[in-house]
Amino acid sequence: MFLLQVIITCWLAGMATWRLHHHLQRGPVLASAVVTLVAGLVLPATFENGHVLAAVAACGSYVGMSANIRLSTTLEISAALVLASVLFAVSANIFMGVGGRLGTIAAISAMTVWGCSQLLKQGALARGVVARIMLRVFR
After folding, report:
1. Are 84 and 10 in contact, with CB atoms under 8 Å apart?
2. Alpha helices by DSSP H, 23-100
3. What percent of the chain is predicted at pLDDT more than 90?
4. By the 8 A CB rule, do 77 and 37 touch?
5. Exposed, middle or buried by CB within 10 Å (0-12, 13-18, 19+), for 137?
């Protein structure tokens, strides 16, 4: 249940930030600040684990700050947000109190999805380059 809450919260916050930034032409910092402020005020008062969900929303808003040249479609931003959710949930008890964790998770998620989309666009996956690399890595 926790993972589902994290995914939904991250996705909603990230999409809200992305839409404010790209569709309403607000700056990425303002868009993230508005979403994080609302999440920080509403989620702790609404949910038992709301303080954790507020941090998840902040992480999602950082992903939503991505430039349109990096994550330009709803599918790309959604994939990055789901990846960020999973990374947050996996690292929740590992990196407690480590500064920059949320931004690092957001950066890793955005760069991973952008890199994969670039590989898809260049046809590297069709040629099996990535598949061969993955086979070597996971042997």
Report:
1. yes
2. 28-46, 50-64, 74-91
3. 57
4. no
5. exposed
